[in-house]
Design brief:
Elements (H helix, E strand, L loop, with lengths): L6 H4 L1 H11 L11 H19 L19 E2 L2 H11 E3 L6 E10 L6 H9 L15 E9 L2 E8 L14 E3 L5
Parallel strand pairs: 1-5
Antiparallel strand pairs: 2-6, 3-4, 4-5
Helix pairs in contact: 2-3, 3-4
């Protein structure tokens, strides 16, 4: 059974219009609030991922999102929630989720130099391909019926390609 398109996809033009207006502050014309910037960054990342999603969604290694080291790379907390709203259970039913907290860095720094590198990763910008990822990872409890599992997210990867779909889940068409 193929899942129906989510309501959010049909409302996408309205969401984009609302997000472009939502962050304007009455005190400082043109300024955006931190939550508005997060939502805008997540929408931008999803639009970029939607372009990539016109091709079939390739599922990465079966461990995608199942451990800190294989965390799903998204943009901002809003990106974590948007990604989870794109997933459905293997049987096509709707899943539920809740954030259970941060679980520490994706890779534990072992040296003083790695600790300095971890501090630098707080600043925005892409990582070099060979650079270890010290970003803090979030854990979500995901429920499909009676089955509860955990998915891990690294929310510091804006502008990347669609991360794929973890084993045991499906995605709404054209959502990821």
């Amino acid at each position: 059974m193929r899942p129906r398109a989510p309501l959010c996809r049909s409302l996408a033009p309205l969401l984009l219009l609302a997000s472009s207006c939502a962050g304007v502050s009455a005190r400082q014309p043109g300024a955006t609030t931190a939550p508005a910037r997060e939502e805008q960054a997540a929408e931008t990342a999803l639009r970029g991922a939607a372009d990539a999603a016109r091709a079939p969604i390739a599922t990465a290694a079966s461990s995608l999102g199942r451990t800190k080291a294989s965390a799903i790379e998204v943009c901002a907390p809003a990106g974590e929630r948007a990604y989870l709203r794109c997933l459905v259970c293997a049987d096509g039913t709707t899943l539920s989720f809740e954030r259970s907290g941060s679980v520490g860095p994706r890779t534990e720094p072992r040296t003083e130099e790695e600790s300095r590198s971890a501090l630098q990763q707080i600043l925005p910008g892409p990582l070099d391909p060979a650079q270890p990822d010290f970003h803090i990872v979030d854990r979500y409890r995901v429920r499909c019926g009676e089955q509860v599992s955990a998915l891990f997210f690294d929310m510091y990867h804006c502008g990347g390609a669609s991360p794929g779909v973890p084993d045991g889940f499906q995605a709404w068409p054209d959502c990821l």
